[in-house]
Design brief:
The chain is built from 14 helices and 20 strands. It is α/β, with parallel strands linked by helices and 510 residues long. It has 3 domains: 186 residues, Class I glutamine amidotransferase (GATase) domain (Rossmann fold); 187 residues, HUPs (Rossmann fold), CATH 3.40.50.620; 95 residues, GMP Synthetase, Chain A, domain 3. Strands 2-1-3-4-11-10-9-6-7 form a 9-stranded mixed β-sheet. Strands 14-13-12-15-16 form a 5-stranded parallel β-sheet, with helices on both faces. A hairpin with a 7-residue loop joins strand 18 and strand 19. The structure holds xanthosine-5'-monophosphate. Xanthosine-5'-monophosphate binds next to loops.
Length: 510
């Protein structure tokens, strides 16, 4: 199989680079620069290497560097931003830092004639984000592009197939970024581009048919995209030997538990055990108000319930999980601060032992998982489901969780989702939900004074959920949702709209 290595130096667009390459039907793997040796790279059959950007300066002695042995492998290399500077520096070129040479944002790019720039206009727009710049290309390299401030915005040594670009071809603001990546993959690395996520899933199904034949596999189904696609893929391979356990912790959205059960059991005929554990979770959460404690309790209790079910089944060969590629990438970023523990419910049970862990989606990005889900016939409602946190509504009820509060929030959230679905919104927010704020305010109903709780509506647009913008929903949608929520749901006296972006706020309130 043709594949490209993305060597990660901690830049913010690293996953984007890998995804862009996959969009060209070329398989990619991301590895941290310090966790792979030239020998391993040489032995793995990579047909090209892309060095990513990163926040460092090559002159900082502690800056991340690749082993120069990589340059001797004869594999074509494309360095991007910091990756280009590092390539130039390690090959003997000069990288300089001059304050007035930094460029950020859309920048005019002038390219020379070269296979890397086939079908790229001589003058176009590229996206820049740098302070250091390559001031002199190393011996054997030719300058292939310039900008107003960069005398060497792209460089290359054709004899060794080493190339670097100071700008970011993976970002859509670079007008011909797609063409430049295509040229690297097809003209320079000589690839065909015949990889496809759906074919990959088809091959996995065939493989599992043999490898898991006659063996029982257990999967924790949450109804989220990843576990749903993993379940269906395995079901196609091993049929009723796949046992899905769906732990309903009672903190799902309105009607969601029944929908998941119906889809998998009735539509697909999957062997599904639904455990209605709502009461049990509520008891554990009684009196708990601290968000991280809530997460921890739910995560742990989830594993206990799952273990109990697993034990009832006797020996099960494998545990299947819906791990996807972004979960397994070793990042070159180093430790970053933990803002929220973000554990998905459904960690690894430690009491029941399995002979194997099966992770059918561990090589796929989210959009590829969705493509596979569609290929397998999963309903659009599940494939395009907005993300939902593992701890569920627990992190959307501020303060203590009670059965009544869960019910109130489920109703308010359902109204908001219905109104968004009904509205003709050009681009739906990427995530939208209601929050029970824990604050009470005075209201008036008929002639009587009320004292009910405040619901906040939240809707955000985002690419990666690391940053997010509050959505500019039409006033009419907000108005209809607000009026229905206060009129139809007892105990709510006021509705507010959250207009905070992330950062400084987070998407969830807890
Ligand atoms: P925040 O609130 O950190 O959320 O801005 C970013 C994204 O992560 C989801 N989220 C979680 N998902 N377990 C999960 O599986 C969690 O504990 C959790 N907390 C937040 C959130 O819904 C948003 O999509």
């Amino acid at each position: 199989m043709e594949k490209i290595l993305v060597l990660d130096f901690g830049g913010q667009y690293n996953q984007l680079i890998a995804r862009r390459v996959r969009e060209e039907h070329v398989y990619t793997e991301i590895r941290s620069y310090d966790r792979v040796t030239p020998r391993e790279i040489g032995g793995a059959g990579y047909r090209g290497i892309i060095l990513t950007g990163g926040p460092n300066s090559v002159y900082d002695p502690s800056s991340p560097r690749f082993d120069p042995g990589i340059l001797e492998l004869g594999i074509p290399i494309l360095g991007i931003c910091y990756g280009a500077q590092l390539l130039a520096f390690l090959c003997g070129g000069t990288v300089s830092a001059a304050e007035n040479s930094s460029e950020y944002g859309k920048t005019r790019l002038f390219v020379k004639e070269h296979p890397l720039f086939r079908d790229v206009r001589e003058e176009s727009v590229c996206f820049m984000s740098h302070t250091d710049f390559i001031s002199a290309a190393p011996e054997g390299f030719r300058v292939l592009a310039t900008t107003g401030k960069c005398p060497c915005a792209a460089l290359g040594d054709d004899s060794r197939k080493l190339y670097g670009v100071q700008f970011h071809p993976e970002v859509t603001h670079t007008e011909f970024g797609k063409e430049i990546l295509q040229n690297f993959l097809f003209a320079i690395c000589g690839l065909k581009g015949d990889w496809d996520a759906a074919d990959h899933a088809g091959e996995l199904i065939e493989r599992y048919k043999t490898e898991l034949s006659g063996k029982k596999v257990l999967l924790a189904l949450s109804g989220g995209v990843d576990s749903s696609v993993a379940a269906l893929l395995l079901y196609r391979a091993i049929g009723e030997n796949l046992i899905c356990v769906f732990v309903d912790h009672g903190l799902l959205r309105k009607g969601e538990g029944d929908f998941v059960e119906k889809t998998f059991r009735e539509t697909f005929g999957v062997n599904l055990i639904r455990v209605n554990a709502g009461e049990r979770f509520l008891k554990k959460l009684s009196g708990v108000t601290e968000p991280e404690r809530k997460r921890k309790i739910i995560g742990e209790e989830f594993i206990r319930v799952f273990e109990e079910e697993a034990r009832k089944l006797g020996h099960v060969h494998a545990l299947a999980q819906g791990t996807i590629y972004p979960d397994v990438i070793e990042s070159g970023k180093g430790a970053s601060a933990v803002i929220k523990s973000h554990h998905n419910v459904g960690g690894l049970p430690d009491v029941v032992s399995f002979d194997e862990i099966v992770e059918p989606l561990r090589d796929l990005f989210k959009d590829e998982v969705r493509a596979v889900g569609t290929m397998l016939g999963l309903p659009g409602e599940l494939v395009w489901r907005q993300p939902f946190p593992g701890p569920g509504l627990a992190v959307r009820i501020i303060g203590e969780i009670t059965k009544e509060k869960v019910k109130t929030l489920q109703e308010a959230d359902a109204v908001f989702r219905e109104e968004i679905a009904k509205a003709n919104i050009e681009k739906r927010p990427d995530q939208y939900f209601a929050v029970l704020t824990g604050t009470h305010t005075v209201g008036v109903m008929g002639d009587a004074r009320t004292y009910g709780c405040v619901v906040s509506l939240r809707a955000v647009s985002t690419d990666d959920f690391m940053t997010a913008e509050w959505s500019r929903l039409p006033y009419e949608v907000l108005e209809r949702a607000s009026s229905r929520i206060t009129n139809e749901i007892p105990g709510i006296s006021r509705v507010v709209y959250d207009i905070s972006s992330k950062p400084p706020a987070t998407v969830e309130w807890e």
